[in-house]
Amino acid sequence: MAEHITIRRASGKWSVRAGGAVLGESSNVLELSEGDYPPVIYFPREDIAMAFLDRTEKSTHCPHKGDASYYSIVTRSTTLENAAWSYEAPYEAVARIKDHLAFYTGENVTVEEI
C-alpha cells in the first residue's frame, strides 16, 4: 500500500443520508486516510439502498487506488450528480475498498456515526 494511505475498520454504526432519505446504515464501514486529506468512510455496497443510485459516465484515476466510478443520488426532490464513488477494481494495495461506496458530504449528503 502507498505509505500515505491507511485503511481500518471504523468502530460504531454509520449512516449516510441524502435529501431526507436514509441511503444506508452499517457497522462494517472502512475508514481510509490518505495523507493530509480528511478520512473518508467507505460503506459496503450491500448496506446501501442502491435503488437511489444511478451510475454516471464520470470516472477518475488515482495513481494509488485505481479508477473510480461515480454515481448520482436520486431522491424524490432532486438528483445529486456524481455524489458517490467506488473503486470497483482497486489496486491490490487497497483491495479492501472493493465493493464499497464513499460519498461527498455537504449540504445535501451526510455521513455520520450514529
TrEMBL record:
Name all DUF427 domain ranges.
15-105
> Matching InterPro entries, A to Z?
DUF427, DUF427_sf
Q: What is this protein called?
A: DUF427 domain-containing protein
The membrane-spanning stretches of this chain are none
Q: Which PANTHER family match?
A: BLR5716 PROTEIN, DUF427 DOMAIN PROTEIN (AFU_ORTHOLOGUE AFUA_3G02220)
**Organism this protein belongs to:** Pseudooceanicola lipolyticus
